[in-house]
Structure formats: C-alpha cells, structure tokens
C-alpha cells in the first residue's frame, strides 16, 4: 500500500504542472476568443475643459471624469480601459454650443449626447459610444478680474514673559486674478499657519501664502515681521 501511495504521489507531482499549463493555455485561448466578439461595457474616462470665452472663466462643479457606455470588439474596449488614465478627452468650449438657463445669473447647460461623435474621433475608436453620463453638464461663465487684496497673517506667537507682539506682513497686500464673484466675499489671502513659542526678540520670516486653486497670484511668499514689545499692561 505504501508503494502504491508513493507512485500515486509521484504521478500527481509530475502531471499537475502539465495539467495547470494546459488549463492556463485553454483560458488564454478562451479569453482571446471572447475579446474578438462584440461586447458592451462602461468606463469612467478623464475629461479636460479648454478655451472658455475670452476674459471668462468656467465656474461650477464640472466632473473630471465622464462615464461612457461602449459597444464594440472586446479587445478595443479593453484597450481604451487600459489607456483611460493617460489621455483625457477634451471639451473645447469654442466648438460647442451650450444653452443658457433663464435667470439673472448666467448659467448654461450642455447635453453630452452631442459630444459622442467628437469623443469617438479623439479616441480613434472602432467601437460605438452608446451614452455618456451625466447626460447634462451645468456650468457658468464668470468675468476674470485682477485686484489687490490684503494679506492675512495666520501666525501664532507666544512671547516670553507676558510681552506683547505686533505682526505685520510685507507686502501688506498682493495682486490676485480670478473669478469676479469670488472677490465679493474674499476678505484676504492668508499665510500658511506658523507657530512660534517663547519669543524674546523681534524677528522676520518668509512664509508661503494659502492661495485657493481658482485664484492666481505671481507672489507665493510674503515676509512677516514680528515685533516683541514691553510687558502687557493687562498683567
């Protein structure tokens, strides 16, 4: 019995790799055969928006990816899925015709079904785009303006011995470019938070500013001057 068991184990050890190889080979042939058939699938594909009207900026929460329903050869759908993170499709606002939504604020919408032909050309697709989700994109245009706004020092200084401190920035304001509606509620541009403890002497530090992504400024840092004065009168 022991000899038969050893022979059986040797046979399995010899034949199992062969069986696994042919099983894998069968799966590869089956998969290649499936890829040659017409299939349906969906993909979340990156999108980029360019060329808004002159002196205007696009506002709203436009998605950075669109979901596309596809139908075509399996290998073609697999190819676009593998390349989806590297080559975004482009929505060129100078070549589309969005419709305005009635109201005081200039709001627009764009039906994405009208983009399918253009997307197919950009993707060099040999498949059909059946639908794009969301089916409608909502956005607005806002005027781009440039203004000077105050710099707000976001600095915490703990002086030694109960002394007082005076904090000023140099410059005290910077030139900022962005959507007009943002400036209606913009109090200023803060610096990045910094904390200084047990300070006895005056000092000066160069600190980055916290400029939101939708605003632009050529200045990325400002000087912050901290003056340590005598004892607080409250003590």
What does this structure look like?
The chain contains four helices and 15 strands. The chain has 235 residues and is an alpha+beta fold. The protein has two domains: 36-134, Beta Complex (RNA Polymerase Alpha Subunit, Chain A, domain 2), CATH 2.170.120; 145-231, RNA Polymerase Alpha Subunit, Chain A, domain 2 (Beta Complex), CATH 2.170.120. The model has no long low-confidence stretch (mean pLDDT 81).
Rg value = 32 Å
Main sheet summary? 6 strands, mixed
Which term fits the overall shape? elongated
Order of helices and strands: HEEEHEEEHEEEEEHEEEE
Give the distance, in angstroms, between the N- and C-terminal Cα atoms. 98 Å
Please state the second-level CATH architecture of the largest domain.
Answer: Beta Complex
Number of domains as seen in the coordinates? 2
Mean pLDDT: 81
Number of helices: 4
Low-confidence runs of at least 5 consecutive residues: none
Beta-strand content bin:
over 45%
Quick overview:
The protein is α+β, with helices and mostly antiparallel strands and 235 residues long.
Using brief descriptors, characterize the structure shown.
single chain, 235 residues, alpha+beta, RNA Polymerase Alpha Subunit, Chain A, domain 2, six-stranded mixed β-sheet, four-stranded mixed β-sheet, 4 helices
Fold topology:
Blueprint: H1 2-35, E1 38-50, E2 56-59, E3 65-73, H2 74-82, E4 89-92, E5 99-101, E6 107-111, H3 116-123, E7 128-133, E8 136-152, E9 155-159, E10 163-170, E11 173-179, H4 180-183, E12 189-190, E13 194-199, E14 203-208, E15 221-231
Parallel strand pairs: 1-4, 8-12, 9-13
Antiparallel strand pairs: 1-3, 2-8, 3-7, 5-6, 6-8, 8-11, 10-15, 14-15
């Amino acid at each position: 019995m022991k000899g038969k068991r050893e022979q059986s184990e040797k046979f399995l050890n010899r034949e199992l790799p062969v069986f696994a190889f042919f099983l894998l080979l069968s799966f590869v042939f089956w998969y290649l055969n499936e890829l040659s058939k017409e299939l349906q699938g969906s993909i979340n594909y990156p999108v980029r928006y360019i060329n808004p009207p002159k002196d205007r900026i696009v506002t709203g929460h436009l998605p950075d990816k669109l979901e596309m329903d596809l139908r075509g050869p399996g290998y073609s759908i697999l190819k676009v899925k593998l390349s989806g993170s590297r080559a975004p499709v482009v929505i060129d606002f100078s070549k589309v015709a969005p419709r305005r939504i009635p109201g005081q604020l200039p709001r627009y919408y764009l039906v994405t079904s009208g983009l399918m032909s253009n997307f197919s050309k950009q993707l060099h697709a040999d498949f059909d785009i059946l639908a794009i989700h969301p089916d409608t994109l909502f956005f607005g245009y806002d005027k781009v303006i440039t203004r000077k706004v105050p710099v707000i020092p976001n600095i915490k200084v703990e002086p030694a011995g109960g002394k007082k401190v005076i904090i000023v920035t140099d410059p005290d304001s910077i030139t900022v470019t962005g959507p007009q509606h943002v400036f209606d509620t913009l109090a200023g541009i803060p610096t990045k938070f910094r904390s200084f403890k047990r300070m006895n002497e005056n000092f000066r530090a160069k600190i980055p500013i916290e400029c939101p992504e939708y605003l632009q400024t050529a200045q990325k840092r400002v000087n912050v001057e901290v003056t340590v004065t005598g004892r607080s009168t409250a003590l």
